[in-house]
Amino acid sequence: MAAPLLIAFDADDTLWPNQPHFDQVEARLFEILAHCGDVVRISTQLNDVQRRNMQLFGYGAKSFMLSMIETAIQLTEGAVTGHDIQQILDMGKDLLRYPIEPLPGVVEALTELRHRGHRLMVLTKGDLFDQESKIARSGLGDLFDHVEVVSEKDEATYSRLLARYGATAADFIMIGNSLKSDILPVARLGLRAVHVPYHANWIFEYVDPAQLEGLAFHQVSDVRAVLDYLP
C-alpha cells in the first residue's frame, strides 16, 4: 500500500460553487447603479475599489459588500440612497448564508481518499467565520482531518503549513481551481499540484500563462478524476 498523503483541497469553486453567487450579486449591483453608467464603468470602479480594499479587508463576502457600498458612494458622488445601501447590505448577507451544495463527485472522491488512508485538509483563504460557516453548511466537515483558513495562499504560507504538519514534497499535494492560489505557489516550491478548472473565475485570480511556463502540475476535469491520479 502506498504511503498516506496529506491532500489539501481548496474550498470555493473546488468543493462547492461560489463565484456564480458573487456574479449574480454583482449583476444586481449593476442594475441598482445603472443610472450612474454602463456595466463597464461600474465594473471597472468596483474592481479598483476591491483591489485597494483587499489590503485592508482581505477576501470574502464582507469585503465584497463593503467594496460595493464604497463603489455606490463614489459613483453617485455621495448621493446613494439609504434604500440602495440596504439592498447592497442584504445582498452581502445573502452571500454569507446561501445553501452549500458540493459539486458533483466531491463526496465520492473525499470518501474514497479517506478509505485509502490519506489525510485530508481544507485549505482556503478568506474570512474565518465565513469559511467555517460554509464548511459546516456543506456537510463535508467530517470528511476532513484538518481545516486551515489563511489570509493568503502564497509560497510562504505553504511552507509554513508543511512545517506545521511535518509534510514533505513527497507526501503533500494541493488540489484546487485557482491557478494563482492553488497551483502557482505550490509548483514554484516543487510540490505537487492538481488543477481542477471551474467555469466561473474571479478576476483577481487570473494568472498570465507566461507565469506557468516551466512549472509542473497536473490537470483533471473534476474532483472525481483525482481518484485516477492519486494512489
Verbal overview:
This is Putative hydrolase of the HAD superfamily. The protein has helices at about 20-30, 40-55, 60-75, 80-95, 105-115, 130-140, 155-165, 180-190, 225-230; strands at about 5-10, 120-125, 145-150, 170-175, 190-195, 220. It has about 230 residues and is α/β, with parallel strands linked by helices. It has 2 domains: about 5-15 and about 100-230, HAD superfamily/HAD-like (Rossmann fold); about 20-95, Putative phosphatase, domain 2 (DNA polymerase, domain 1, Orthogonal Bundle), CATH 1.10.150.240. The protein has a 6-stranded parallel beta sheet, with helices on both faces. The radius of gyration is 19 Å and the shape is elongated.
Instruction: Characterize the main sheet.
Output: 6 strands, parallel
Beta-strand content bin: 5-15%
Q: Write the CATH architecture name of the largest domain.
A: 3-Layer(aba) Sandwich
- Gap from first CA to last CA: 9 Å
Summarize this, please?
The protein is an alpha/beta fold and 231 residues long.
Supply database-style keywords.
6 strands; DNA polymerase, domain 1; 9 helices; 2 domains; 231 residues; Rossmann fold
Write the layout of secondary structure elements.
Blueprint: E1 6-9, H1 19-32, H2 39-57, H3 61-75, H4 82-95, H5 106-115, E2 119-125, H6 128-138, E3 146-150, H7 155-165, E4 172-176, H8 179-188, E5 192-195, E6 218-219, H9 226-229
Parallel strand pairs: 1-2, 1-4, 2-3, 4-5, 5-6
Helix pairs in contact: 1-4, 2-3, 3-4
Keywords: Hydrolase
GO molecular function, one term: hydrolase activity
InterPro entries: HAD-like_sf, HAD_sf, PGP-like_dom2, S-2-haloacid_dehalogenase
